[in-house]
Specification:
- The chain has 168 residues and is an alpha+beta fold.
- It has a single domain, classed as Aminopeptidase (3-Layer(aba) Sandwich), CATH 3.40.630.30.
- Helices cover 33% and strands 29% of the residues.
- It contains 5 helices and 10 strands, in the order ββααβαββββαβαββ.
- Strands 1, 2, 3, 4, 5 and 7 form a 6-stranded mixed beta sheet that branches. Strands 6-8-10-9 form a 4-stranded mixed beta sheet, covered by helices on one side.
- α1 runs antiparallel to α2 and α4 crosses α5.
- It is globular.
- The protein starts with a strand and ends with a strand.
- GO terms for molecular function: acyltransferase activity, transferring groups other than amino-acyl groups.
- This is GNAT family N-acetyltransferase.
- Keywords: Transferase.
- Pfam families: Acetyltransf_3.
Length: 168
Amino acid sequence: MPVITTDRLKLITFTVDMMCASLQGKEAFEKISNYYVDDEYPMEDYKQLLPYKIDRFQQFPEEMEWEGIIIHRDSQTIMGDMGFKGGPNSEGVMDLGYSIVTSYQGKGYATEMAKAMVEWGLRQPRVNRITASCDESNLPSIRVLEKAGFKRVGKEEQEIYWSIAGGD
């Protein structure tokens, strides 16, 4: 992923070296990334995925370009992560996932990131649609996806499914 810059954010690739450092602690992560790291980052759910992601990206380094971290430009602080879960499938679909630490939530950062990722993602070769999902009780995420232009396309139990295509 190239560096993607918005008004308030910088989105960069989350490299294997950075992932390994993040598991060693805040100081190691700050040293290797050259950014401050919010005390809440990485969140526990994401931290549990990191060993899998590290192993996966070591085996398939080309997939790393779809995984990133969210940096607050003014404070130069890592405040979240986002990515397309392995890149486009055979039908040209990518699935967007993201998380932002609590202290940065409710300020429009997730929407700003999602819009930038959709714009960039739909310009990539072999990509014609981006999907996402969230729990029906996660009203902030529902608003993020709506504001980013996603359309609701289905629901299964408590999970709502969203999609946006090039030209939407």
